[in-house]
Amino acid sequence: MIKACIFDLDGTLANTLESMAYVANEILEKLKLTPQPVENFKYYSGEGADMLIRRCLKDAGDPELMHYEECRSLYREKFDADPLYKVVPYDGIMETLKELKNRGMKLAVCSNKPHVAAVKVIAQMFDGYFDLVIGQSDAIRRKPAPDGPLKAAQEFGVTPSECMYVGDTKTDMETGNAAKMHTVGVLWGFRDRRELESNGAEVIAEKPQDLLKICEEWKND
């Protein structure tokens, strides 16, 4: 029986693509490097801000990552100050979260977004829905390490097999499986069905409302 749902943030709860691209490209221009197309950030993201910056810099004309530390510092500074710029929740996600809460489900966020930024986004955009938010920090290894989801399960007093981990990337599928949780890949985010299924998605959700049906199907699992 599913008692808790643990969500990725970027590409799962909220469309942060334009936000990430805007901040990164503003920094690249300042460093006199080449701004990158918004679509590229679908593939730069997923493994934390540090990896996003590395991938972005290489494509922008800095293969040796000479500007890495400066870019990393500026990126975190800008996101910590205003992580909500150009961020929007996906259609149907609010209604789905509300129904999950009504069913008594514990809800958590586990993101590779820096912790301060993740907390701000959830507090301002999804206030009242989530019982726990875990972002990237020195205290918990970033995904695909299962530390974050396992911490959520422990705090909720449930077993991993009673949790559903929901995300939109290869990293999320690896995370959910490493934590031995039911793993759901979503198609409204940054990656496609092939990536999700080939990396261990137990089931695919095409729209947020599908999560309600999936929970019901796993009710007596």
UniProtKB/TrEMBL annotation:
One of its GO terms (molecular function) is phosphoglycolate phosphatase activity. One of its GO terms (biological process) is DNA repair. SUPFAM superfamilies: HAD-like. Transmembrane segments: none annotated. Its EC number is 3.1.3.18. It comes from the Bacteria. It holds the Pfam family HAD_2. It is an enzyme of class 3 (hydrolase). Keywords: Hydrolase. This is Haloacid dehalogenase superfamily, subfamily IA, variant 3 with third motif having DD or ED/haloacid dehalogenase superfamily, subfamily IA, variant 1 with third motif having Dx(3-4)D or Dx(3-4)E. It comes from Blautia obeum A2-162.
